[in-house]
Amino acid sequence: VGIRFADEEYEHRLELLRDALLEAGLDAAVLSDDRLTWYFTGFGSAAPIGSPARPRLLAATAAGENAFFVHRSTRATVEEMSAVRSIHTYDRLGSAPADDILEFLHRQGCRRVGLELDGQLRAGMTVADADDLRHGLTEVTDVSPLVWQLRMIKSGAELERIRTACRITDEVYRADLARLRRGMTEREIAARLERDMLERGAHGAWSWVVTGQAQYHRVDGVVRDRAVEEGELVFVDMGANVGGYWADFSRSAVVGRASPEQKRLQEHVADVTAIGVSELRPGRTTREAALAVEEAMAERELVFSSGAGRYGHGLGLWTTEPPDVWPTDETQIREGMVLTMEPATWTHEGMFHCEQNVVITEHGNELLSRTDWRLVETAQ
Amino acid sequence: VGIRFADEEYEHRLELLRDALLEAGLDAAVLSDDRLTWYFTGFGSAAPIGSPARPRLLAATAAGENAFFVHRSTRATVEEMSAVRSIHTYDRLGSAPADDILEFLHRQGCRRVGLELDGQLRAGMTVADADDLRHGLTEVTDVSPLVWQLRMIKSGAELERIRTACRITDEVYRADLARLRRGMTEREIAARLERDMLERGAHGAWSWVVTGQAQYHRVDGVVRDRAVEEGELVFVDMGANVGGYWADFSRSAVVGRASPEQKRLQEHVADVTAIGVSELRPGRTTREAALAVEEAMAERELVFSSGAGRYGHGLGLWTTEPPDVWPTDETQIREGMVLTMEPATWTHEGMFHCEQNVVITEHGNELLSRTDWRLVETAQ
């Protein structure tokens, strides 16, 4: 899999962006996050490694005029890769060419402009640059609802990458967890998972490993130099990146044999996850799926002890994207969305969490992670 | 090498931060970039992988009161890892707890507060969050001069990591470039370099490979699926990450034998680089080092054709950090800085660029990259 899609993919995205601007009553948007400019132009890498000294900014108007502002030194590569053909360069390192962008917008008669202000988006420019743009514009609003409306729905070409990412993740999980031994540290296990995903062709890899009993209420992907002991649960959350798109998958193993209580909790969490997954389909909202999860957890007297703030989320160029599967999020679930489902309960027995990745189909969904939910036991 | 430093390292950094706030006449700073909160608290990973839904914010006052604001779900890990003991949690995903932070700052009587507004810093919160903080504060200034003043000077413990990162990078370059063959693509070469750095213990790896003649004016780390041909220069820019700290190193090889012109250009660039390196010492400014490079290039009729916007830069938790080695940057070079030197000329013969990493010592500097500057030839 190469990194760049065919031109048609970007042309289609730019068309949808224009339609969305018109529908939102915006004259233009200015986008600067590396993933977002890559999404619309095709210029960039699987992982964002651009220097903060050379921000890349796409100005796109509702009239269909697009201009891509990049540092002069990147022009040759941008010309080769970008589907946006109007390329403007700047020389000064460290800040966005706000004056040039404003001049472009004013020349196009743009008054209402969307910027990356909220909705989990981080602007790829400094706050001072965003201030400069705002001072020069008549009206500025947050562009995030519009961005997520587009990015939430995956095309066939995007789905193909996510499928490959999920397959590599599945394969590496099964191969590596079978080799798990006591004494290995969280960091060692994670490093091996990541290397093996790259070895199988991933363009990037992410993993998180939690061992031991003091593991409840522990999130956010930080691994330690702690060695796993006999009988302990090893929780693995991991994902390959293929062409920019992530898998986000979790399963658990026990070093030695699982206790009856560990098996019981894992089965309950897998049941609740399956109930949640069955609610991820057109016609439902993320709120309704979340309420179904809550009911299923209550029936089993399971506590959502991770406190992660959501039972699932969108998946794509980021490992966590909107929408959130949570009672306060009322996103309509639609065909082409890729969502995760991961209700979890973390007790002194370990971390019970069995994350599924699904793509929403016309009438339901399709599971992308094929690995069984049962605890892997290293002593057979 | 583990990821976390000893407590004393963080205590020392927090002390220096307090001193810098006092000196700058600021009552407090609020920092939210994942690298920055990791730098001061010790909570985080070698690579930043926190979810954008759960920003982490450190509020530090000139009176020495520090408060770390994190999502509730991360509390257990933060308590285990953070050198800042006052931990405040929030529940809502997606935005920073601006009200709680303002309450803390007001309770501490803070009026003048520094935020990440400029100076290549990107705030780890949304622009809307930064606006909320600004609306609630009497006076807000950019905290970046203060942040870079601290981060530019590396401690002994930081230098140890950078040395290890440079050693791994050197070793992998030499091992892999010897195996270079025509027909390999830029992406394949880069993937192997990265895997091999991880295999040797790096916590992260970055690489960029450029082949062929259409390679001038091509920067920013984007690799292609282009195969290298006989006689072509293969330019490699790469670096291992050890405990959060990067190497940033470049050399070149030729598939087959180098032409006399390729050898001549590489020697000239290596000479200019060496002259630039000799100017990186206490008593000089980055401007003076840049002017020495320009003079040396002019003498050899070399054009700085990359247009990268600087001859070198700082190195640390980011692969490119302030200061810039450039005539407009007048930073005083001081002991403990880690800087790169990379004047380059890119012609139809290839990309001639021989990046060195150095640490500034009491009276001069020490080279961290030990690999010879000469072009590797795969046909011996």
Protein model, in words:
Two copies of one chain form a homodimer. Chain A is an alpha+beta fold. Helix content of chain A is 34%, strand content 22%. In chain A, the strands form five sheets. A six-stranded mixed β-sheet of chain A has the order 4-3-2-1-5-6, sandwiched between helices. In chain A, helix 4 runs parallel beside helix 5, helix 7 (156-177) crosses helix 8 (186-199) and helix 9 packs antiparallel against helix 10 (286-299). The first copy, chain A, is globular. Chain A starts with 6 loop residues before the first helix and ends with a strand. The model of chain A has no long low-confidence stretch (mean pLDDT 92). The interface between A and B is large, with 74 and 73 residues.
Element layout with pairings:
The structure is a homodimer of 380-residue chains.
Chain A: H1 7-24, E1 28-31, H2 34-41, E2 57-61, E3 66-71, H3 75-81, E4 87-90, H4 98-107, E5 112-115, H5 127-135, E6 139-142, H6 144-151, H7 156-177, H8 186-199, E7 204-211, E8 233-242, E9 245-246, E10 249-254, H9 260-278, H10 286-299, E11 312-314, E12 321-325, E13 338-341, E14 344-347, E15 350-353, E16 356-360, E17 365-367, E18 376-377
Parallel strand pairs in A: 1-5, 3-4, 5-6, 10-18
Antiparallel strand pairs in A: 1-2, 2-3, 7-8, 8-9, 8-10, 11-12, 13-16, 14-15, 16-17
Helix pairs in contact in A: 1-6, 4-5, 7-8, 9-10
